Structure formats: structure tokens, C-alpha cells
From TrEMBL:
InterPro entries from the UniProt entry: AraC-bd (IPR003313), AraC_XylS_family_regulators (IPR050204), Homeodomain-like_sf (IPR009057), HTH-like (IPR037923), HTH_AraC (IPR018060), RmlC-like_jellyroll (IPR014710)
Assigned keywords, A-Z: DNA-binding, Transcription, Transcription regulation
Phylogenetic classification of the source organism: Bacteria, Bacillati, Bacillota, Clostridia, Eubacteriales
Domain HTH araC/xylS-type: 179-276
Gene3D superfamilies: Homeodomain-like, Jelly Rolls
Name recorded for this polypeptide: Helix-turn-helix transcriptional regulator
Pfam families reported in the protein's UniProt record: AraC_binding, HTH_18
Listed GO MF terms: DNA-binding transcription factor activity; sequence-specific DNA binding
Organism: Bianquea renquensis
Length: 280
């Protein structure tokens, strides 16, 4: 989704997709799984998906679909919504991005609801898709109304699910340690962090840590740290910070390293990205 566009919704059908790398977006993602053989990795949590499952993913979370190599019909509806759009639709007593808040107690990404609720959400998403790309009278107003209704419904269902401790991620013996490592990295991404530091901090062999981290998160500790620093920098730029200030807060050794990493990840330099934001 381009900078400045409030939201996009797409209905995808594929018989085969190549491997998708671990990535993140600058916007919130609502992923409605319809069919296929897919697990979804969000940070260190892996969710084996069932038709009708809904994933809510924040801009701060790295994620990756794990698609079976055998050819299966893979169908899903994906909605991307900018923070500014959700803020505009929210009210002081009705904050609509709360269901994406990774700091909420019992936070989980996956929402699995009963058949009646699933059909209601599906109907709202179909209406949103229809009004978004339609040209009938009042389509823009109708699409915003449908989006607001959808966000309210998802928040209600997620609050209900979390209050009952419903979690659907696959459990793994190493998950507890890797979760602590991820929390440490997220809290200290702006500092100098090495694999040796992590191994010493958590009393674990760096070789075992590296192997289990790669297995559960889908990338190396070094790569994860770089991506988290870039996410921090990009969020700062989106909030109006200049590239120099963003770089200073994100743990890169010097600006040239920051520039190369940013350009390699996003295909544009940080100064050019900041200019694009200012234009919007």
C-alpha cells in the first residue's frame, strides 16, 4: 500500500506461490483465510490455519506465510489499513486499533470465531470490497461505514477471545526462551546487541540460540535485529522525524550503514522516503 492511501482490500486466489520472506508493513493487516494448506508465522508464534481464521497483524510485527509445497487452492482476503485511517474513524471511548496492540494482556494474532460470527465478518468484508471498488452513489461513505463496522466487530471478538485465554499457536519447547530473547531485542534494539551478548544474557549456547531462533522465527538473530531497527526508523520517519534523528535512535553504527540497510530493505533511501511522506 502506498504512503497516503488509507486502506486497500484484495481477494486473492492462487494455486501455487513461491516462498514469501519474513517481512513487515507500515500499516495494519487483517488477513481472512478462506482455503489452502498454510501456517502463518508472526514473530516467534506459528499459527496452523483453518478456513475462516482471521489474523490481525500490527506494523511492528514481522510475519511470513508458510505455504505447503503441494499445490492447493490458496484463497484469502487481505485488508491493509493505515494508522491515520483508523485514528480518523476512532473516538476517545472507541479506539479501533486496540485489537492490534501487542502490549495487551493475552495478546494473540489469531481470531477463531463461530460460524455465525464468521459469516457476519465475511459479509462485511465482501461489502467493503464491493463499495471500495464500486462507483455507485455514496460508495465512499458506504465503504468507510463498512470499514468502521468491521473494526468494531474485530475488536469485540478479539476482546472476548483474549478474555477467555483462547490461543491457537503451535507450542514448542524452545518458545519460552526465544520469546524472552525477542522481548529483549525489542526493548533494546537501539543498543549494541550481538549474538554473544544474547547467549550470555540467557545462559544458552550461541549456536543453539542461533539454530532455535532461525527455526522458530524464520530468520537469524542478526537479520531480525536489523529488521527491527529499520522498522523503528521507518515509524519515526512516518511520524515526521528527519533521517538523521531516526538513525541516531535506531542502533546503527553510522549513517552509511543505516542508508545501505534502509535502501536494501525498502528500495529507497531514508531521505527520499522522508520527502515522499512530506509530499503526501
Amino acid at each position: 500500500m502506498e504512503v497516503g492511501i488509507p486502506y486497500e482490500i484484495h481477494h486473492y486466489r492462487d494455486s501455487y506461490l513461491s516462498e514469501v520472506a519474513m517481512h513487515h508493513h507500515d500499516f495494519y493487516e487483517i488477513y481472512f483465510f478462506l482455503s489452502g494448506k498454510v501456517s502463518y508465522r508472526v514473530e516467534n508464534r506459528t499459527y496452523p490455519l483453518q478456513p475462516g481464521d482471521i489474523l490481525l497483524i500490527s506494523p511492528l510485527e514481522l510475519h511470513q506465510p508458510i505455504i505447503a509445497k503441494e499445490k492447493h487452492s490458496y484463497e484469502r482476503i487481505v485488508l491493509w489499513v493505515s494508522k491515520s485511517c483508523i485514528d480518523r474513524l476512532s473516538r476517545p471511548d472507541c479506539v479501533l486499533d486496540r485489537c492490534f496492540d501487542i502490549y495487551e494482556p493475552e495478546y494473540t494474532n489469531l481470531l477463531r470465531v463461530d460460524a455465525i460470527t464468521r459469516q457476519r465478518i465475511s459479509n462485511i468484508m465482501e461489502l467493503l470490497h464491493q463499495e471500495t471498488y464500486g462507483d455507485a452513489f455514496g460508495s465512499q461513505v458506504a465503504s468507510e461505514a463498512a470499514l468502521t463496522q468491521l473494526l468494531i466487530e474485530l475488536n469485540r471478538q478479539m476482546f472476548y477471545s483474549r478474555s477467555r485465554g483462547r490461543r491457537y499457536e503451535a507450542l514448542d519447547p524452545s518458545e519460552a526462551v526465544i520469546s524472552k530473547v525477542l522481548s529483549y531485542i525489542n526493548e533494546n534494539a537501539g543498543d549494541d546487541i550481538s549474538l554473544d551478548d544474547l547467549a550470555e544474557q540467557f545462559y544458552i549456547s550461541k549456536y543453539h540460540l542461533s539454530r532455535e531462533f532461525k527455526r522458530l522465527v524464520g530468520t537469524s538473530p542478526y537479520r531480525y535485529i536489523i529488521q527491527k531497527r529499520l522498522i523503528m526508523a521507518k515509524q519515526l520517519l512516518l511520524a515526521g522525524a528527519n533521517p538523521t534523528d531516526a538513525y541516531c535512535h535506531c542502533g546503527f553504527g553510522d549513517y552509511s550503514n543505516f542508508y545501505r540497510a534502509f535502501k536494501a530493505e525498502y528500495g529507497i533511501g531514508p531521505k527520499e522516503f522522508a520527502k515522499e511522506i512530506q509530499k503526501e
